[in-house]
Specification:
The complex is a heterodimer. Chain A is of the alpha/beta class. Chain A has 3 domains: 53 residues, Alpha-Beta Plaits; 186 residues, 3-Layer(aba) Sandwich (Rossmann fold); 118 residues, TPP-binding domain (Rossmann fold), CATH 3.40.50. Helices cover 24% and strands 26% of the residues of chain A. A 7-stranded parallel sheet of chain A has the order 11-15-10-5-8-9-16, sandwiched between helices. A 5-stranded parallel sheet of chain A has the order 19-18-20-21-22. In chain A, strands 12-13-14 form a 3-stranded antiparallel sheet. The longest helix of chain A is centred in the N-terminal third of the chain and has 17 residues. Chain A is globular, with a radius of gyration of 28 Å. Chain B is α/β, with parallel strands linked by helices. Helices cover 29% and strands 29% of the residues of chain B. Chain B is globular. Classes of the chains: A alpha/beta, B alpha/beta. Chains A and B meet through helix 4, helix 5, strand 11, strand 13 and strand 14 of A and helix 3, helix 4, strand 9, strand 10 and strand 11 of B. Strand 17 of chain A pairs antiparallel with strand 11 of chain B, so a sheet runs across the interface. Bound molecules: flavin-adenine dinucleotide (2 copies). One flavin-adenine dinucleotide binds next to helix 8, helix 9, strand 21 and helix 10 of chain A.
């Protein structure tokens, strides 16, 4: 218990009981006593006039973080190959590790994945923690959490990065809670604080309307998921060597839940937009289906998807799952091209997470331009065909 | 304790009150969020979660409790949940809960779910995949870990069969069908049908003083102050700023052909094509 009553000094006056927001301070026989409802919030401490309440609440023990060394990247395997985001994180992780004067390590879980180790070394990993087991062949939350938790607890890294893929965002929060670590979601920037060497983790929130820089002062490793596609790949060091540390895996039956029954490919699905790298979006300015055919050709030439505003959906030019914005989907492509879209806040709420925004609009004062990286004032029926003509595979 | 087939199914739905994203405005000077006067609504994913849970009541003897952590005005989303068909609403509200990160939020919600489970059986917790303000999508898995239950994320449809949960997970380019024993935690990103509207008579009922709404504080869930709110948080926001400051608008001028060429050059520079 972090709050004590000094019986000799307590007069049973009841001031502390009045100050307690939970009714947890009981006064019986002229003596105060902490009841079971006490949350150790400390509200009573200032109320006592007789120095009868003592506490150790303020003495938060400074955690010893010095023993935590190394930058780790959890490497995701997709269909037998390393996920691109994992390579991006090795690229960024190598820079962070160098600034910290620590090693970069890759963590690889799976079944018969040893053949990927040379690639991890080439991407900058000085060490690879390798955990192989038939039970790790397919991703399962609890099995992966168990193995990673054991690795982290025994080797104590200072930084742990995970790609913000569907898998990463399923795994990282589970792991962070098991080990009582902080976790920053879906970061787009990572840097080392030159003052104290802590990891500065920057991420968008409020549908991309706000950026926040977050630190994890009290726990190690500092954990973050990082958005795919934002960190550049590092230089390849062909044939580089690395140290391989094998982890013994002992899974329990309960680790393999839930059980996968069936997996079915689905082509036409709304989620496509949220995963798209390029989105060409249209609004009222497209004028009708003909305008959207033009956008579809541009999207195809760029390897992207078509989306649009609520107006475009209401007009029947676009299926509803492709509406972008507050009442549609939020998208985070690398490239967002807004054609004939005014840029109402409800629409912007769904597209501000894009890395680059291009706007094509014939009204120079259209609000979409204020959030665009590239502004093309003009008629989309002239600009889009010109783009198609200039693009390889566009005409 | 495993659930017995055919018996009562206790479901809790986590609902968060969020600022209406349509109304979010930034202070242009400081780059901070202007929250004053911004209307608050139920997080869109949580509406899907409620619909998913309420559908279970059609075929089963189930009870749905909506649980939220927030300031007193968050009672509004619980009233709305009751009006949609939830049986009970519980608000976790306490000065000490303010400023929580996801660790502290999941701890607080987790303690409350444990208490719910002691009062009546709790077999299934339904969360939204993501809240539209904090945007982390971390609460579902963290609550599952707190309870020590398996988790099924990105669910678009589910069915309770005997003592198990059958769920369809929507992943990029595919749908997975999984089977999971109860109790379990799911996070949803869609519902089989569009979320139902609140019913007016239920809404009126929800606003009466005898409505099945309760407010719990830290003592009710035995949550020590050091584990909740800002004090219990392991992450710290050190700076917020407007992302617009990061975007410098370049105007590409000239004829349509020149504009197109200039844009393609820029896209090449950024390796977008
Ligand atoms: C509660 C609520 C929720 C909403 N949710 C959404 C949402 O999720 N998504 C959404 O998109 N909207 C949403 N809206 C609607 C939103 O407020 C706007 O009305 C809508 O986004 C406008 O669509 P638009 O840009 O296509 O049309 P407009 O605002 O009419 O803009 C058309 C633009 O096209 C330009 N233009 C016209 N012809 C050409 C041409 N030939 N070449 C180039 N430019 C041209 C014009 O200059 C104009 O800027 C919501 C509104 C409310 C109230
Ligand atoms: C700008 C900004 C950035 C932030 N970044 C981080 C970060 O990187 N890491 C971090 O740990 N914290 C972060 N936070 C704090 C975080 O937003 C809060 O902890 C919040 O209480 C829960 O997170 P969320 O909104 O992201 O919920 P999500 O995890 O996105 O929500 C998923 C689901 O959990 C349920 N849920 C969430 N909150 C509640 C609630 N209060 N009551 C009932 N159900 C709920 C709902 O069902 C919801 O659909 C950030 C806050 C801000 C303002």
């Amino acid at each position: 218990m972090a709050i004590w009553v000094v019986a000799d000094k307590c007069t049973g006056c009841g001031l502390c009981a009045k100050a307690c927001p939970y009714g947890a301070m009981l006064v019986e026989d002229k003596l105060a006593r902490l009841g079971p409802r006490c949350t150790q919030c400390g509200a009573c401490l200032g109320a006592c006039k007789f120095e009868a309440l003592l506490s150790d609440l303020t003495q938060e023990p400074a955690p010893d973080l010095a023993g935590y060394q190394g930058v780790w990247v959890f490497c995701e395997v997709q269909q037998g190959a390393l996920a691109r985001v994992s390579l991006e994180l090795l690229g960024r992780g190598a820079v962070l590790a160098e600034q910290l004067g620590q090693t970069l390590a890759a963590v690889l879980l799976g079944h018969q994945v040893e053949n990927l180790v040379p690639e991890l070394a080439a991407q900058g990993a000085g060490r690879v923690y390798l955990a192989q087991d038939p039970g790790l062949a397919d991703y399962s939350t609890l099995a992966y959490t168990r193995v990673l938790a054991e690795l982290v607890s025994s080797h104590k890294p200072s930084v742990l990065l995970v790609g913000a893929t569907p898998l990463g965002r399923d795994l990282a929060p589970r792991l962070s809670r098991r080990l009582d670590l902080g976790l920053t979601a879906d970061c787009t920037e990572l840097a080392i604080d030159p003052q104290d060497g802590s990891l500065l983790q920057t991420r968008p929130a409020f549908g991309g309307n706000v950026m926040a820089t977050i630190v994890t002062p009290r726990a190690r490793p500092q954990m973050a998921t990082v958005r795919p596609g934002v960190m550049p790949l590092g230089p390849r060091r062909e044939g580089a060597a690395c140290e391989v540390l094998r982890q013994v895996v002992a899974l329990e039956p309960g680790d393999l839940l839930p059980r996968l029954l069936a997996s079915q490919a689905r082509g036409q699905k709304p989620a496509d937009l949220t995963a798209a790298r390029v989105i060409v979006a249209g609004g009222r300015g497209c004028g009708g289906p003909r305008g959207f055919e033009l956008l579809a050709r541009l999207a195809q030439a760029l390897g992207g998807e078509v989306g649009g505003t609520r107006v475009a959906v209401e007009e029947g030019w676009l299926p509803a799952p492709r509406q972008i914005g507050q009442t549609g989907v939020s998208v985070r492509p690398e490239l967002y091209i807004a054609c004939g879209i005014s840029g109402a806040i409800q629409h912007r709420a769904g597209c501000l997470g894009a890395r680059y925004i291009v706007a094509i609009n014939r009204d120079r004062r259209a609000p979409i331009f204020s959030v665009a990286d590239y502004a093309l004032a003009g008629d989309l029926f002239k600009v889009v065909p010109a783009l198609l003509a200039a693009l390889p595979g566009g005409a | 304790m495993a659930r017995e087939a055919g018996s009562f199914l206790g479901v809790a739905v986590l609902v968060k009150q969020v600022p209406d994203s349509a109304e979010i405005k930034m202070d242009p000077q400081t780059g901070t969020l202007l929250r004053e006067g911004v209307p608050a609504v139920m997080n869109p994913d949580d509406r899907l979660g409620l619909e998913t849970a309420l559908l279970l009541k059609d075929g089963l003897d189930a009870s749905v409790t909506a649980l939220s952590m927030g300031p007193p005005q968050a009672l509004d989303v619980l009233s709305e949940a009751l009006a949609m068909g939830a049986d009970r609403g519980v608000l976790l509200s306490d000065r000490n809960f303010a400023g929580a990160d996801t660790w502290a939020t999941s701890y607080t919600l987790g303690r409350a779910l444990e208490r719910l489970g002691q009062q009546e059986s709790l077999d299934l917790v339904v969360c939204g995949r993501q809240a539209s303000d904090g945007d982390t999508a971390q609460i579902g898995p963290q609550v599952a870990e707190h309870l020590g239950w398996p988790q099924v994320t990105y669910v678009e449809r589910l069915a309770v069969e005997e003592c198990e949960l059958r769920a369809w997970r929507r992943l990029p380019g595919l749908v997975q069908e999984v089977l999971c024993p109860l109790p379990a935690v799911v996070t949803v990103l869609a519902s089989p049908v569009a979320p139902r509207w609140p019913l007016l008579d239920r809404l009126l009922m929800a606003c009466r003083s005898e409505a099945p709404l309760e407010v719990w504080d830290a003592a009710d869930i035995a949550a020590p102050a050091a584990s909740t709110g800002l004090k219990g948080s392991l992450t710290r926001v050190v700076r917020t700023f407007s992302p617009k400051s990061g975007r410098v608008t370049s105007w590409l001028e000239g004829s349509a052909g020149e504009q197109a060429q200039a844009l393609i050059n820029e896209l090449r520079n950024h390796k977008l094509i």
